Amino acid sequence: MNKNSFFSPGRFARLFRNDLLINQKTYLFTLAGIGIAIYALLYFSMVTTKHVSLNQYTGFIVFYLMGVGVVIGTAFPALTNQTKMSNYLLAPGSTLEKYLVQFIIRIVIFVPIALLIFWISAHLAKASLVPDPKIGFNPEVSITDFSFESLFNLFYYKDIAPTILGIFSMYAFLFAGSVSFNRFALPKTLIFAGGILITMFFSLVLFSHIFYPLENHGFEIKLEPYKVGDIDSYKVFLYCWACLSWPFFLLFAYFKLKEKEV
Amino acid sequence: MSYIHRTLNIYVMISIKQLTFHYKKQQALFADLSFQQENGSITGLLGKNGAGKSTLLKLMAGLLKPQTGQLTINSFKPFERHPDFLSDVFMVPEEFSFPPVTIDCYIKATAPLYPNFGKEKMDKILLEFELDRQKNINRLSHGQSKKFLIAFALATNCRLLILDEPTNGLDIPSKSLFRKILVSSVTENQLVLISTHQVKDIDTIIDKIVMIDEGEIVFNEEVINISEKWQFQTVTSLSGIADPIYYEKCPGGYRIICPTNDEDETDIDIELLFNAIVNKANLN
Hints:
The structure holds 2 protein chains of 2 kinds.
Chain A: H1 9-49, H2 54-73, H3 82-90, H4 95-127, H5 139-142, H6 148-152, H7 157-180, H8 185-211, E1 227-228, E2 231-232, H9 233-258
Antiparallel strand pairs in A: 1-2
Helix pairs in contact in A: 1-2, 1-4, 2-4, 2-7, 7-8, 7-9
Chain B: H1 2-7, E1 12-21, E2 30-38, E3 41-47, H2 53-61, E4 68-73, H3 83-86, E5 89-92, H4 103-110, H5 119-128, H6 142-155, E6 160-164, H7 172-185, E7 191-195, H8 199-202, E8 208-213, E9 216-222, H9 223-229, E10 230-235, E11 246-250, E12 253-259, H10 270-278
Parallel strand pairs in B: 3-7, 3-8, 5-6, 6-7
Antiparallel strand pairs in B: 1-2, 1-4, 8-9, 10-12, 11-12
Helix pairs in contact in B: 5-6, 6-7
């Protein structure tokens, strides 16, 4: 097997450089845009509520991470129309190299930068607040300092890895969606995800009716949790989803790209 | 013959054997298509609308996957999209788009992907096409951006250049410039495959004519052989013409194809030849 047909560092570097040179403005505007948006949102929230706790930061970061998902869900922009797709597929590089360029830019590089932007924005927003002694507002007291470390302290230590992997799985799902659907990939991926959730809900309702016919009514779901070691079965199910689904989505995305036709 | 082939480094670049292809939920466009083409020529691929010219070019470029049969280009299966295959094939599609960057930036970003890219050749062609390197490609007119795409394609020095309707959108001076630049840029190691309806735009530069109709190659002949076999004339009357192979009325008389006799060779009227083949005239 000729490894050069799958991956060559030199060729990958040239493809990577090509993407950065062609899309540098788009990437910079995206980063600037999300920076300004999250700063404005945090500042507005701090000014109006005069109080931000660690729990509220959690809410913000959940929405922020969903926003980051939009950037990942719009990966492979060249696949949105036929002419761009032809250029992209015919660019001299292996499928793995083209895949890695998008994966590295959209996930490996973008997500940490986006988190850094959130951290900077949260601190900038707090630093921009003016104390108001008349109403007893002192940002140093009322606004909690944001840090990822304190955010993680809200979790049990054993939940941290599944949470991170769960977020990664969500991103891998959006990444796979961006390859699977050509036009309007992100909305289609979200509709597909909704479809899966609705199917799961109705399946659980159906099974509840089958196994507990007398106790179950309408759209109720009756589940009997049980302990697996020191965690309950619900958590085991969620952990399995969080930890095991991302390799499937990433592989799926690769093979979808490999078999892409115009 | 084989000696000549070895010294000129001529080899089979395109090899298609019993290829079948159909789009989803549609009838087969190609059934049992076979075709071979060596390097070292500019070949015109002609055919009616919907005959499958663009599809065949896409199959050759690796944008579509054939259902059955064998298709190899430079010994590569196109749909595997091997990087070495992709760096040696360039396709100029009929419809294209560019990112919103300057010509200079595009060259800087994309040229390194093609190992045989000729920067000096690129500069020369840009100069001939009067294209400003500092201009944003998206702000160029359709014709200008097409000229840039053709210039880039030629500068890649890929062994196989696929041009789908290259003269569409070019003004009259640009068409003649295109012919001049193409002929001077292409080496005997390359094969240029041009699919077009504008036969007049390419009739002076092609070495070979391939016609496709109803999913089959119905004509495949070198221009030199065509001139030797047939004459293309315009006559005022058919009387006195012994057994014309094909004729068409035109203002002032008839355009005819007849077998060559001792008279001088004539220029090939590709349009007339095309109509003769489509109308199944007996050219044998």
